[in-house]
C-alpha cells in the first residue's frame, strides 16, 4: 500500500513519509467501518450480485471464529489453520508498537487494562493447559449470528474440543443456513441444550429429538465449566433492549465469569450507536466479521468488546465499497505516520513552520504555554504565544523557547478589545494559528476571538473557549476566510451546537456530522475514541490513546500539535488525523511506562519526538 521511497510535497516543501493518499491526503485504503444497514447491503451485493453463496459466508465466519477460539484456548496458530495473515488480524490492542511492523491495526483506548478480563481477572491465552481437552460452550440465538456459532462449534469439535451448544431458540425459528449447521452439529453428536423454565414439560420443551431441555441451573452449570464461551445470541440488526428469553441468556453469560468470545458484536449492544439499553455481554474478545462496526469504537458498547479482532469472511472489497462509499474509516498508526512531514536536511527554524498561539488569561496562563511547547515538539520552527499582559510572565518562565507577546488585558484578566489589532498583525507573519487554550469566557475576549476568526489570514485551530465564543452559533464559523480545525471535547461541542453533553455522547457520530455540516469545517470530537469529521462528509475514527490522556492540559497539547502540522503544510483533515493518532500513541507510551493514572499533560511533550519517529518507521516498513 505504501512506497517508502516517495511522498507528497506540500506547500512548504516538506514531504510526507509515504503512502497512497486520497483527496485531502488521508490514506485511501483506510479500513471502512460499516453500519448494520451497510453490512447487510454489502452481504446482499456479494450474494445476489456476485454469486457468492450465503452458506459459504457463514462457513467462512464460523471457521474464522473457530480459528481465533483455538488460538485463545491453546495458544497455537497451526494445526487448525494459520492465525496470521489476511483471514484474522487484531485491531486492538495494537501489536505494532513493541512487536514491530509485522502486525497491523491500532491500539485502542483500554481504560488502562493490562489485558482482556473475565470475571474481574486478567485472561491471557492459552486458556487451557497442555494435555487437557478444551471445553467450549457455543451460545446460539435464532439468527445468522447463531448460525455462525453453530458452524464454529462444528469446527472446534472436529479439532478436538469438548463442545456444548446452548440453543436459545426453537430449531424451526432458525434461518435456513443456520438450520443446516444445527443439523450438522446434531449428526456429529454434539451436546445440544435448549434452555427451558423450571418445571416445563420435557417433551414440549425439546421440540426436536436431538436437543435436550435444560433448566437455568443446568445452563449455569454448563457455562461455568467452559474454558471459553462463544456469544452468538444476537446479531447486528437488533434494536432496543433485549427481550426474554435472550435477556436472561445474556445475563447468564455475564454471570458465568468465564472468558467470552463475542461473534461480530457483544449481544445487547446497538451496532450503530454503541448504546446498551439493557443487559449486554461483557466480552473478553470480539471478532468483527467482514468489517468493524461503529459500536466497536463508540462507548459504552466499545467497553463491552474487550480485545478486538477482524475476520475476512469472503465479502469482496468491491461489495463493501458499493454498499458504503461514505463509510466511517479507521486509520492505523502506520497510515497516520505516512502523513507526518519529513523536513529536508537543510531545514532551519524559519522553514519548519511558524505558529501563533492566542490564549491565556490571569487564571489560566499555563494552557497557551502547553500548546506552544507542543507545537515546537511537533516540529514547528518558531512559536509565538499571544497572551493578556497578566499571563505573560508565567508563559515566558514556562517556555523559554517560546516568543511571548503581551497584549492588552481586560479588567477580568482576559484579552481586552485592544488586543485584536496586534493579534491580527502577528497572525499575518505565521503559517498557522491556534486560538482558545486558557482564553476564558469574558465578553471582551469572546468578542476579540470572533473578530479575529473572521479576519484570519492563515489556517487555524479553534479549541476550548475559542469554540465557546461561538456557542449556539456554529454557522458563524462558515464565514471564516481560511480553513479551521475545531477540537472540542463533548461539553464544548454541546455548547457549540446548543445541546447538552449527554446528547453528544449518546450519538457521537451524529454530533460530529451535525457540527461539520453547520460549521463547514473539520471537527475533532475528543474522547475515546476520537472522531475526525471532514467537510466532504468523511469521518475517521482514532484507535490510539488511554486514560492517561484524561488530564488537564492534554487537549492543549493536541491543539498545539495540530497547529504545528498545519504550519508544516498539511491540510486540515491530514493535520487532524495525524495529530490525534500521534497524541494518542504518546499517551499510551506514557501509560505503559508510568502507569495510566497521574500522568501530567506536560509529560506528553517529551514523548512526542520518539513517537513521531516510531510512526514514521511503521509508515515506511
Descriptive notes:
It is a single chain. The chain has about 625 residues and is an alpha/beta fold. Helices cover about 40% and strands about 15% of the residues. The chain has 22 helices and 24 strands. The strands form 4 sheets. Strands 2-14-24-23-22-21-20-19-16-17-18 form an 11-stranded mixed β-sheet, sandwiched between helices. Helix 5 (about 175-185) links the parallel strand 7 and strand 8. Helix 12 crosses helix 20 and helix 17 (about 490-495) packs across helix 19 (about 510-520). The longest helix has 23 residues, at about 570-595. It is elongated, with a radius of gyration of 27 Å. The termini are close together.
Topology, pairings included?
Layout: E1 15-16, E2 31-33, H1 36-49, H2 54-74, E3 88-92, H3 96-99, E4 117-118, E5 121-122, E6 135-140, H4 144-158, E7 162-167, H5 176-187, E8 191-195, H6 202-206, E9 212-214, H7 216-224, E10 228-232, H8 246-256, E11 260-263, E12 285-289, H9 301-305, E13 307-311, H10 317-323, E14 328-330, H11 333-337, E15 341-342, E16 354-358, H12 366-377, E17 382-388, H13 392-398, E18 403-407, H14 420-427, E19 432-435, H15 443-454, E20 460-462, H16 465-468, E21 484-486, H17 490-497, H18 501-506, H19 508-519, E22 522-525, E23 531-533, E24 539-541, H20 554-567, H21 572-594, H22 601-620
Helix pairs in contact: 1-10, 2-4, 4-5, 7-8, 12-13, 12-20, 12-22, 17-19, 20-21, 20-22, 21-22
Amino acid at each position: 500500500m505504501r512506497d517508502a521511497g516517495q511522498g507528497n510535497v506540500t506547500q512548504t516543501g516538506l514531504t510526507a513519509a509515504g503512502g497512497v493518499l486520497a483527496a485531502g491526503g488521508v490514506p485511501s485504503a483506510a479500513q471502512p467501518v460499516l453500519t448494520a444497514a451497510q453490512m447487510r447491503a454489502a452481504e446482499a451485493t456479494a450474494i445476489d450480485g456476485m454469486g457468492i453463496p450465503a452458506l459459504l459466508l457463514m462457513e467462512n465466519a464460523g471457521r474464522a471464529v473457530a480459528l481465533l477460539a483455538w488460538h485463545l484456548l491453546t495458544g497455537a496458530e497451526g494445526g487448525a489453520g494459520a492465525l496470521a495473515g489476511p483471514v484474522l488480524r487484531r485491531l486492538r490492542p495494537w501489536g505494532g508498537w513493541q512487536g514491530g511492523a509485522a502486525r497491523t491495526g491500532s491500539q485502542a483506548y483500554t481504560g488502562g487494562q493490562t489485558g482482556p478480563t473475565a470475571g474481574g481477572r486478567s485472561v491471557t491465552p492459552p486458556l487451557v493447559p497442555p494435555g487437557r481437552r478444551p471445553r467450549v460452550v457455543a451460545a446460539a440465538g435464532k439468527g445468522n449470528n447463531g448460525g455462525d456459532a453453530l458452524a464454529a462449534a462444528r469446527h472446534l469439535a472436529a479439532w478436538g474440543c469438548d463442545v456444548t451448544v446452548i440453543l436459545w431458540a426453537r430449531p424451526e425459528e432458525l434461518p435456513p443456513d443456520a438450520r443446516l449447521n444445527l443439523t450438522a452439529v446434531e449428526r456429529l453428536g454434539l451436546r445440544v441444550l435448549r434452555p427451558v423454565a423450571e418445571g416445563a414439560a420435557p417433551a414440549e420443551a425439546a421440540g426436536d429429538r436431538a436437543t435436550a431441555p435444560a433448566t437455568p441451573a443446568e445452563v449455569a452449570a454448563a457455562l461455568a465449566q467452559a474454558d471459553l464461551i462463544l456469544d452468538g445470541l444476537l446479531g447486528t440488526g437488533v434494536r432496543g433492549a433485549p427481550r426474554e428469553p435472550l435477556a436472561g441468556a445474556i445475563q447468564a453469560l455475564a454471570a458465568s465469569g468465564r472468558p467470552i468470545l463475542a461473534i461480530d458484536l457483544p449481544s445487547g449492544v446497538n451496532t450503530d450507536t454503541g448504546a446498551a439499553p439493557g443487559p449486554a455481554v461483557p466480552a473478553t474478545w470480539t471478532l468483527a466479521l467482514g468489517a468493524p462496526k461503529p459500536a466497536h469504537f463508540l462507548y459504552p458498547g466499545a467497553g463491552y468488546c474487550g480485545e478486538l479482532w477482524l475476520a475476512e469472511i469472503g465479502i469482496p472489497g468491491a461489495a463493501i465499497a458499493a454498499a458504503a462509499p461514505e463509510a466511517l474509516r479507521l486509520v492505523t498508526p502506520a497510515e497516520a505516520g505516512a502523513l507526518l512531514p519529513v523536513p529536508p536536511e537543510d531545514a532551519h527554524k524559519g522553514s519548519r513552520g511558524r505558529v501563533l498561539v492566542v490564549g491565556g488569561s490571569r487564571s489560566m496562563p499555563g494552557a497557551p504555554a502547553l500548546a506552544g511547547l507542543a507545537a515546537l515538539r511537533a516540529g514547528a520552527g518558531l512559536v509565538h504565544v499571544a497572551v493578556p499582559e497578566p499571563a505573560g510572565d508565567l508563559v515566558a518562565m514556562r517556555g523559554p523557547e517560546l516568543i511571548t507577546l503581551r497584549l492588552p488585558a481586560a479588567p477580568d484578566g482576559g484579552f481586552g478589545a485592544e488586543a485584536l489589532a496586534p493579534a491580527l498583525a502577528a497572525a499575518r507573519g505565521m503559517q498557522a494559528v491556534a486560538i482558545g487554550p486558557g482564553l476564558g469566557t469574558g465578553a471582551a475576549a469572546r468578542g476579540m476571538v470572533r473578530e479575529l476568526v473572521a479576519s484570519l489570514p492563515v489556517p487555524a485551530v479553534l479549541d476550548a473557549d475559542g469554540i465557546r465564543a461561538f456557542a449556539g452559533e456554529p454557522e458563524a464559523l462558515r464565514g471564516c476566510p481560511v480553513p479551521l480545525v475545531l477540537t472540542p471535547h463533548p461539553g464544548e461541542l454541546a455548547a457549540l451546537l446548543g445541546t447538552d453533553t449527554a446528547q453528544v455522547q449518546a450519538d457521537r457520530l451524529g454530533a460530529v456530522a451535525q457540527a461539520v455540516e453547520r460549521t463547514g469545517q473539520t471537527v475533532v470530537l475528543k474522547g475515546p475514541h476520537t472522531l475526525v469529521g471532514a467537510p466532504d462528509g468523511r469521518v475517521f475514527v482514532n484507535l490510539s490513546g488511554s486514560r492517561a490522556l484524561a488530564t488537564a492540559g492534554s487537549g492543549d497539547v493536541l491543539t498545539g500539535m495540530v497547529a504545528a502540522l498545519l504550519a508544516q503544510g498539511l491540510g486540515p483533515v491530514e493535520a487532524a488525523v495525524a495529530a490525534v493518532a500521534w497524541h494518542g500513541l504518546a499517551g499510551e507510551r506514557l501509560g505503559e511506562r508510568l502507569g495510566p493514572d497521574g500522568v501530567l499533560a506536560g509529560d506528553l511533550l517529551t514523548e512526542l519526538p520518539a513517537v513521531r519517529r516510531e510512526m514514521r518507521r511503521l509508515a515506511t516498513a
